[in-house]
Structure formats: C-alpha cells, structure tokens
C-alpha cells in the first residue's frame, strides 16, 4: 500500500510554499525589466497576487489543522494529522484512518455499518 494518498495538509502546504517562491521569482523577473516600467509593474503585481494567495492558503491550512485529528503513525511512530476519515502520514505516506481496523484499506461507506463489522468478526472467529 504505497502512495495512493499523500497527506492533505502537506499537499496544500506545498502548494502555498510553491506560490511564495513563484511570487518572488515573478517579482525578480519584473526587476529585470526596469527599463520597461509597465512590464515591471505588471510582474510586480502578478508576484504580489501569488504571495497574497499563498497567505490566504496558509490561513486556510491553519483552519484545517484545527479540525484535523492528531494521531501517532503506526508505521513510523511520528505524530501526524489526519484530515477526514482517510488520510496519509505526513512523513511516510502510510495511508491512515481514524479507525484502526481500516488500516491499509480504501475508505468505503460499508465500514460505517455496524452490521458489516459483526459479520467480519464472525468470519475471523470461524477461521
Ligand atoms: Zn508515518
């Protein structure tokens, strides 16, 4: 079970970080066009938009983080955050779920049903 998911919070954070760098690079390119003022202003403006966007995304991550559940990854033993029912470890990409019985499985609605678990238990008792 490798790399079907990657951690949602990490993913968003990577996008935000990429935007900061993109914004800086765009602004830097703008500086190269000093002799064409409107080009420089345009690049500066685009760079600023990218940086403002990343700030908004960082803010959004902060909100998501408060909703995420902190768990210790069974694979690497590090504390990570699970967003939603199924997510991946921030460090080793191990798929994680808030239900320990679902480890290594894709999320499926049937796991919410008590009946399903009773049947599973019966099966394992018979084996
Ligand atoms: Zn891990």
From TrEMBL:
Organism: Filobacillus milosensis
Transmembrane segments: 12-33, 39-61
Name of a matching Pfam family: DUF2614
UniProt subcellular location: Cell membrane
HAMAP family, A to Z: UPF0295
Protein name, as recorded: UPF0295 protein E3U55_15010
Membrane topology: Multi-pass membrane protein
GO cellular component terms listed in the entry, alphabetical order: plasma membrane
Family classification: Belongs to the UPF0295 family.
Keyword terms: Cell membrane, Membrane, Transmembrane, Transmembrane helix
InterPro entries: UPF0295
